[in-house]
């Protein structure tokens, strides 16, 4: 009886070993364990462009505005950025921009914010002391709207329109000198606040020799000129958006 049980146990163990081991030689595919896909598509980042006619792109197509071209340059770098939101209108001074920001009351959650304002302060002969105060307030709003992250704010200098056909009947030397004065103010305020400053003014004077850099209205930059600004801005934005 004991030998019968012994042989029965041996047979059971042999059969079990075959079942467990033989499956390796049957050629049957063994499916890997399922792994849940935990990747989440990140939402596109947001961009607010503050300014005047230069920001809204007077006399050029929407796609040629410098904020729009900046977005287009960042996309091939793997940076998904929504089309810009704009608070900008032709003819605005710093005071107009301040009023519009307060009226619009945009969310203070933008990933990046650009600011270019002041040419109409100069053109209208407004006081530099007023500009100093109001530009400081505009910059403070820009930082606030970038969720308080000053490294995500970018100030562009005022371009020099004295080289345009529009300015031929004006004192172009005086215009250029005043543009430099207003830029000295916005540069100092920007640097004091630890914000990135992008000087596009020297390049804007190339329009004196290259008519293709000026829009058909004879005053504002063309898409070709805006592309130069976008190249500089996109390089700075890339540093914080990568």
Task: Give an overview in words.
The protein is of the alpha/beta class. The protein is built from 9 helices and 5 strands. It has helices at 2-22, 53-56, 66-74, 94-104, 119-123, 128-145, 172-192, 201-204, 223-241; strands at residues 47-51, 85-88, 112-116, 153-156, 196-198. Strands 2-1-3-4-5 form a 5-stranded parallel beta sheet, sandwiched between helices. Helix 7 (172-192) links the parallel strand 4 and strand 5. Mean pLDDT is 89; it is low at 1-28.
Short note summarizing the structure:
By secondary structure, the chain is α/β, with parallel strands linked by helices. 46% of the residues lie in helices and 9% in strands.
Strand content: 5-15%
Indicate the percent of residues in helices. Answer: 40-55%
State the distance separating the first and last CA atoms: 79 Å
- What best-fitting shape do the alpha-carbon axes yield? globular
* Structure class: alpha/beta
Placed side by side, the strands forming the largest sheet appear as: 2-1-3-4-5
Number of distinct helices: 9
**Average pLDDT over all residues:** 89
Major beta sheet summary:
5 strands, parallel
Segments where pLDDT lies below 50 for 5+ residues? 1-28
Report the C-alpha radius of gyration, rounded: 31 Å
Q: So what's the oligomer here?
A: single chain
Order of helices and strands: HEHHEHEHHEHEHH
